[in-house]
Amino acid sequence: MPLVDVARATIRRHGMLAGGELVLVAVSGGADSVALLHVLRAVTPALHLRLHVAHVDHGLRPDSGRDADFVRSLGARLGLPVDVVRVTVSKSGSPEAAARHARYAALESVADRIAADRIAVGHTADDQAETVLMRLLEGAGPRGLAGIPPVRGRIIRPLLASRRADIVAALKGDGESWVEDPSNDDPRFSRNRIRHDLLPALAGVNPDIVPALVRTARLAREMTDAITRTAAAELAASAVIEGGGLTLPLARLQDLAPPLAAEVLRQAAVRFGCRAPLRAWAYRGLRRVLASPPPRRPFTIGGVVVEVSSGRIRLAARPASRLETRAVAVPGCTALPEIGLAIETALVAADGYAIPRGRHCVAFDADGIPGSLSVRARRPGDRFEPFGGGESRVKALLINAKVPRWARHAVPIIEADGRILWIAGLRRSNAAPVDRATRRVLELSLVPLAQSPCAR
Q1: Main-chain dihedrals φ then ψ at residue 305, nearest 5 degrees
Q2: Low-confidence spans in the chain with pLDDT less than 70
Q3: What secondary structure letter does DSSP report for 3?
Q4: Residue 35's pLDDT is what?
Q5: Please, are residues 244 and 318 in contact by the beta-carbon 8 Å criterion?
Q6: Do 221 and 128 touch, CB atoms closer than 8 A?
Q7: What is d(CA 394, CA 373) in angstroms, rounded to the nearest whole number?
Q8: Using an 8 Å Cβ cutoff, are 232 and 260 in contact?
């Protein structure tokens, strides 16, 4: 098939373009990117595209300016606007990875500035085969073997089903020129060794090695895409957003196959800024959260805080908030903004008063309360005398109530003169009960901050 027809089929198969988009075309000056630009110009009339060219100069060669000049000249000949962006490539780590990171950051920046709908890059089937082989040698799993995605965000790859030899033949047939990057022959880079040495050697065993590796990538991607969709549905069904974090039921995660459970964890972590690939952390994190006994302390993987307690897993950008100590206004409203709640208090006459039955409202004999009220988080060694029972540890009460470890420092403890009156929302103490001798009632309520007078 002609190059344009193969690209058109790829665009249609993967839904790369619907029509009418502004497309930023990444053009290095090499054969692949030059062919990409010509292909997109060829499909522009039918798809009503607007094209804008971007060239990223990595500054890694003294003569890199000639590539930029070539792209400027090409854009001028085709009547297309061209942006040339010079970047600084980090010298730490892999030079290939650093250059790739700088290149994509520059392309995204230009795309943001011109409000581009898509960024087109010139990866080919040969690039896909090289990537799969490279990851196979690294010991990658199915997600790594899925190789280069046809679409990722607004990045599209219309030439991903096209062979490099066909691209070169098409350019020569049309009398088009391009520039060769000498770094593509540098044996210091592993991709070049795979391209020039390993793939030709494997072609002696299987002449269709490139199509075979491309097929492997397609099958791996179909499998990982299915896992991704299933994990997203599982996350939507079981996740609870609360207190600045996301919680998942531990038992439900235990019942899932490990690859699916790991993907659920990865997708949950992405919501809090984690960008580490699944193979780098999710399986390790899964082993820790499913360990028996579960970890007692929070741990951080991929920049996300993970905690396990009371049969649930919590993921968040930071540890759960701890309640600060403050005086409680009587009567009045005391905001607890770090936990999104408020304490409302009222002094009312005892005549005709009905004692509340809910867990979020309690009543005391106001004249039996010594001193002023304060609210705080629990402290080590806290003890409590619950109404209708003997003395117990606050920690034990919270555990029995299945309050997860991360939420225990956010449970309001109301005390007077050092004596705990109420573990808000859970249990009141046996102090100052309302009886027939009571003249004034002190009523305390725990309410959402947004619904309280404190928020007005």
Answers
A1: -80, 125
A2: 275-281
A3: H
A4: 97
A5: yes
A6: no
A7: 18
A8: no
**Rounded Cα gap, residues 300 and 447, in angstroms:** 32
CB-based contact 222:150 (threshold 8 Å) = no
Contact 44, 36 (CB under 8 A): no
pLDDT, tens digit, 9 for 90 and up, residues 302-313: 788 999 998 999
DSSP code of residue 201: H
Cα separation, 92 vs 365, in Å, equals 69
> Distance between CA atoms of 383 and 392, rounded to whole angstroms?
6
Q: Give residue-wise pLDDT tens across range 162-203.
A: 999 999 999 999 999 999 877 777 777 888 899 989 999 999
User: Which tokens is 141 given?
Assistant: 């799993």
Rounded (10°) angle between helices 3-13 and 31-47: 70
What pTM was estimated for this model as a whole?
A: 0.75
Residues 34 and 126: their CA atoms lie apart, in Å, by: 16
Counting other chains too, the contacts that 323-329 makes at CB distance below 8 Å and 24 or more residues apart are 323/375, 323/376, 323/377, 323/409, 323/410, 323/411, 323/412, 324/376, 324/377, 325/374, 325/375, 325/376, 325/377, 326/374, 326/375, 326/376, 327/372, 327/373, 327/374, 328/372, 328/373, 328/374, 328/375, 328/414
